[in-house]
Design brief:
Blueprint lengths: L3 H8 L3 H8 L6 H13 L6 H8 L4 E6 L5 H16 L3 E6 L4 H13 L4 E4 L9 H5 L4 E4 L9 E5 L1 H14 L5 E5 L5 H18 L8 E3 L4 H12 L7 E4 L2 H13 L8 E5 L13 E4 L2 H16 L8 E4 L2 E3 L1
Parallel strand pairs: 1-2, 1-3, 3-4, 4-5, 5-11, 6-7, 6-8, 8-9, 9-10
Antiparallel strand pairs: 10-12
Helix pairs in contact: 1-2, 1-3, 5-12, 8-9, 10-11
Protein name: LacI family DNA-binding transcriptional regulator
Keywords: DNA-binding, Repressor, Transcription, Transcription regulation
GO molecular function: DNA binding
Length: 323
């Protein structure tokens, strides 16, 4: 049987480089070409079972997300699966429903099942991956970073996206732009709100902004209740930035119940609306590149599985405001 050492010798590279290529980790294009050519010439087939038994790691990556029903996370999962599958790994999808205890259970399972690594969209700012790190299992945070761990992360520029969304509404002539954001314990909710606040302060001052801010639960019903509450104000908003797509669907329901509609009431939303029947009807959408987030997170994780020991890094993708 041909060994990895023979492949390395024929390719003129180290065995660690061969291992990184076989695990889908990042190497130079020339090194990858040499390794694959050598493996093909020698009819080399990697013994994945033996290598995983030696390292006590499975051929499985855990993907832990907060809401499997949200199309954003569905697209993100697709990006992870595409990249992992190409490298020979399977993906186990775990849904936390934004529940920290449920998330902690899945993280323990990842350790117990010797998963090769975990991609995590944290349930809140207190998410704890210390057990995985202690067992030398790589972790990549996606969509939301991990404040308590020095691990790789892939996010979008949420503050800039919130600012862009609010600016687009002011530019369209709206004057009282509210914000419906997610739970206060979630990083994306705070950053998107901060972007809105920055733009709103520039246009209207900061005196009444807290009256126009509502925290909700990133779900349809949360958006509906938040918008209904805003519309009850003595001086209600004429527009709103909504920090995710599911809450936007609920906000639209509340507008319809109040006899309002877009584009007369301005709405700027993070992520595409979840139901095709809603259409866009003049709604401004901040396009969050979900699949690209998943692909980038999987790439970082595969690098770590392949032996990359460089300092933790954060990749920030751009959210694009579509008018």
């Amino acid at each position: 049987m041909v060994t990895i050492y023979e492949v390395a010798a024929r390719a003129g590279v180290s065995t660690s480089t061969v291992s990184r290529v076989l695990n889908g980790a990042k190497v130079s294009a020339e090194s990858e070409r040499l390794v694959r050519a050598a493996a093909e010439a020698l009819a080399f087939t990697p013994n994945r079972t033996a290598s995983r038994l030696r390292g006590r790691r499975s051929a499985v990556i855990g993907l832990i997300i907060p809401d499997i029903e949200n199309p954003f996370f569905t697209a993100l999962a697709r990006g992870v699966e595409n990249r992992a599958s190409a490298a020979g790994y399977s993906v186990v999808l775990c849904n936390t429903d934004e529940d920290p205890e449920r998330e902690a259970t899945y993280l323990e399972i990842a350790v117990a099942e010797h998963m090769a690594g975990v991609i995590l969209a944290p349930a809140d700012d207190a998410s704890d991956v210390s057990r995985l790190v202690a067992h030398q299992r790589p972790v990549v945070a996606v969509d939301r970073s991990l404040a308590r761990a020095d691990v790789d992360a892939v996010t979008v520029d949420n503050r800039a996206g919130g600012r862009s969304a609010a600016e687009s509404l002011f530019a369209a002539g709206f004057t009282r732009v509210a914000c419906i954001t997610g739970p206060s314990s979630v990083e994306t909710a705070q950053l998107r709100m901060a972007g809105w606040r920055q733009a709103a302060t520039r246009h209207t001052g900061s005196a009444y902004l807290d009256d126009l801010l509502r925290y909700a639960d990133y779900r349809v019903e949360g958006g509906r209740l938040a918008m209904a509450d805003l519309l009850k104000l003595p001086d209600p908003p004429d527009a709103a930035v909504v920090a995710n797509n599911l809450m936007a669907a609920g906000a639209l329901d509340a507008l319809h119940d109040a006899g309002l509609d877009t584009p007369d009431f301005g709405l700027a939303v993070f992520g595409d609306l979840p139901f095709a029947s809603l259409g866009r009807r003049g709604i401004r959408v901040v396009d969050v590149p979900a699949r690209e987030l998943g692909e980038a997170a999987a790439t970082l994780l595969l690098d770590r599985i392949g032996g990359d020991t460089s300092p933790a890094r954060t990749v920030v993708l751009r959210a694009v405001e579509l008018k």
